[in-house]
Write a structure and sequence with these properties.
alpha+beta, Heat Shock Protein 90, 10 helices, 3 domains, 5 strands, 401 residues, single chain
């Protein structure tokens, strides 16, 4: 059987212990004068054996402890070496830290019983206080390292468990984020169908009707191109929407909400938030209501306000929830929702944060800016603010309402 390769640190510990042990032996530094074996070289045998066991402290901890125990007992019949005893304490510690779970549980109890047995045995034999000193030394070289190893092993296991929980939490959070993105894209696919498909179908129908009229050739040719492109665009749009929808399982069309529905949305939220002490306010600072915006922009703004109000009803402290719409000089639309920030954060449930992910995804697809987080309220407190800047091309504006 091939022995496992010793760890580099174990080799360094063994080499250092052997070098110090040889120096102490060369200077005649021993732990006892009464000995059964009088040759000075005999002290080196347990020292070399214990050094060899130090190289196996990680790879074969139980074997190292068994042979190391025999080497320590043999050392008591020679002049004795302090380094041999110190290396034995490290072998006991390593056997608990790197050994099997059963050994880690058994060794502290065994060394504790040995310490008690040695103390009682020498008390009965010698009947003086020196027996207590022998028992104390026995505990220091056996029981104390075992207990230390058990503490270190428990801390390492707790750290590993915490790290595993953190990895699992991160994995669940990533899964929640991915599911939120998929759900939001499926929702947008339905809304795209409602906003675009009907218009393309109307173009196809009207161009077909125009083709049936007896108009000049240039007009007929133009209408032919319009019809061909609209039909092809409609077919391609349906294929793209099908790809976005494939995981949603819901292909039913729904009415696409616009900014005209914000008052109704806030009215419903006021009804739901009465018991929570929330005062909902809409502040539309755009000139003449801002005119009609491109449908994707209005829809995104509506969804951001809707999700922000939902979060406020769940988590906000009593106070004012303000929804602000503002048109910027560059033609973009700024949507801002602020609500009082509760003092104590609510416990996070699985899937928490999916609304923020959906809003961020929706704004990113429009090429806008999104931020959400706590901000000072100017009075020593904090507000939770959701702010989105949605670009609006000037060429995309429809007629004013």
């Amino acid at each position: 059987m091939t022995l496992p390769r010793p760890h580099r640190d174990d080799l360094l510990i063994a080499a250092g212990g052997l070098l110090i042990g040889l120096l102490m032996w060369s200077f005649g530094l021993h732990t006892q004068d009464d000995r059964l074996i009088g040759e000075r070289w005999a002290t080196l045998v347990p020292l070399v054996v214990m050094t060899a066991m130090e190289t196996l402290r990680r790879s074969l901890p139980q074997t190292a402890l068994t042979i190391g125990t025999l080497a320590l007992v043999a050392d008591q019949f020679t002049y004795g070496s302090l380094v041999t005893a110190l290396m034995f304490t490290d072998v006991v510690y390593a056997a608990v830290v790197y050994g099997s779970p059963a050994s880690a549980r058994r060794i502290p109890y065994t060394t504790g019983l040995i310490t008690i047995g040695v103390t009682i045995g020498f008390l009965v034999w010698w009947q003086n206080a020196i027996a207590l000193v022998v028992g104390l030394i026995t505990g220091m070289v056996s029981f104390l390292p075992a207990v230390t190893g058990a503490i270190v092993r428990n801390h390492r296991q707790a750290a590993d468990a915490a790290r595993l929980r953190a990895e699992q939490t991160a994995l669940l959070a990533e899964m929640d984020r991915t599911q939120a993105v998929v759900a939001e894209r499926a929702r947008m696919a339905r809304e795209l169908h409602d906003m675009v498909a009907n218009h393309l179908s109307a173009i196809a129908i009207h161009s077909t009707a125009a083709l049936s009229l007896d108009d000049p050739g240039t007009t007929r040719q133009a209408l032919t191109v319009i019809r061909e492109n609209s039909v092809e665009g409609l077919a391609e749009m349906r294929r793209l929407i099908g790809l976005l929808r494939e995981s949603s399982g819901d292909a039913e069309p729904a009415a696409a909400p616009t900014l005209d529905g914000l008052e109704a949305l806030l009215s419903q939220a006021r009804t739901n938030g009465t018991s929570s002490g929330l005062d909902l306010v809409l502040d539309d600072s755009r000139e003449d209501g801002g005119g009609r915006l491109p449908a994707p922009v209005e829809l995104a703004a509506y969804r951001i306000v809707q999700e922000s109000l939902t979060n406020a009803l769940k988590h906000a402290a009593p106070g004012e929830v303000r929804v602000t719409l503002d048109g910027r000089p560059d033609g973009s639309l700024t949507v801002c929702v602020t609500s009082p920030l509760a003092g104590q954060p609510a416990p996070r449930a699985p899937g928490a944060g999916a609304g923020l992910v959906g809003m961020r995804e929706r704004v990113a697809l429009l090429g806008g800016e999104f931020e959400a987080g706590p901000v000072p309220d100017g009075e020593g407190g904090k507000l939770w603010r959701v702010r989105a800047v949605l670009p609006v091309g000037t060429n995309d504006r429809g007629p004013a309402r």
